[in-house]
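Duplicate of #3305? Posting structure anyway:
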């Protein structure tokens, strides 16, 4: 027992690359919610709510329309999520080895997850930008649609038609969002799990994973929504950060939370499923 009657929890280092695999598994279930969120954030006025937009996609493009851009979502998870979770886990593993399994304090979790989020935002921006375009394509007039066949076709055409640097459109805001997302998800998840297990009433099982991931999802939603709105608009329309800050300020502070409900509805299941899958992968592939 630790001081104060709390149970001392020992943690083993984990494989750094499992986060990207868990992310790919997760988007197979959450991609339709992400697509609807992008549509809501890129409409010029709030004509449609979440359910109306969901129905609109089904009517115009069918069930397959809900999975537009899925290959880009997989590519995003294999770059963005692998990098941000991998950097965080790699750094945390070093601390765990040096301290005999003692989890770092919360401020250090925030620092490590911020570093992971920064790296994830940089390497994941090209796939993220193509993902946004593919999801939003059906909203454009037929003659303006890009009609990317898949992630590789989108990347090839952007490089050929617009230049390689366009792949990093919105990278500044994507990095900011990635840092906030990673802090909200990884730092808060580990802190919540550590606190729950340290209370003596929880053990390392699905109930604890679920409760911790709900807390992480709520934290990530609150932290990332403003940056997410700006990032999505920048990637879709290729306009400057100052333009969108001015636009959002003109519609009021609540403009930063346009589409908040669907964003939370999407992010909470995504966060829960990602950590559920990740914890099971950790059990299947324990550290060496």
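Output from current build:
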């Amino acid at each position: 027992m630790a001081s104060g009657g709390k149970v001392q929890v020992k943690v083993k280092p984990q494989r750094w690359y499992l986060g990207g695999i868990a992310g790919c598994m997760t988007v197979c279930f959450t991609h339709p919610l992400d697509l609807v969120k992008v549509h809501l954030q890129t409409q010029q006025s709030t004509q449609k709510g979440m359910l109306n937009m969901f129905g609109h996609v089904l009517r115009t493009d069918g069930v397959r329309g809900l999975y537009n851009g899925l290959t880009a979502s997989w590519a995003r998870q294999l770059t963005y999520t692998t990098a941000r979770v991998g950097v965080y886990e790699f750094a945390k593993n070093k601390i765990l080895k040096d301290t005999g399994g003692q989890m770092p304090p919360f401020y250090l979790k925030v620092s490590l997850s911020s570093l992971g989020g920064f790296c994830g935002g940089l390497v994941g921006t090209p796939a993220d930008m193509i993902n946004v375009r593919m999801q939003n394509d059906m909203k454009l007039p037929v003659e303006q649609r890009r009609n990317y066949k898949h992630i590789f076709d989108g990347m090839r055409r952007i490089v050929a038609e617009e230049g390689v640097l366009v792949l990093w459109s919105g990278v500044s805001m994507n990095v900011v969002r990635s840092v906030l997302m990673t802090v909200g998800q990884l730092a808060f998840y580990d802190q919540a799990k550590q606190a729950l297990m340290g209370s003596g009433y929880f053990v390392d099982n699905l109930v604890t994973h679920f409760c911790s991931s709900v807390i992480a999802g709520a934290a990530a939603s609150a932290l990332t929504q403003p940056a997410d709105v700006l990032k999505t608009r920048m990637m879709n329309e290729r306009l400057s950060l100052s333009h969108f800050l001015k636009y959002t300020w003109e519609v009021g502070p609540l403009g930063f939370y346009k589409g908040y409900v669907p964003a939370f509805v999407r992010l909470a299941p995504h966060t829960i499923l990602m950590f559920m899958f990740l914890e099971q992968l950790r059990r299947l592939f324990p550290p060496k």
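Confirmed duplicate; merging threads. The chain has one domain: 3-284. The radius of gyration is 20 Å.
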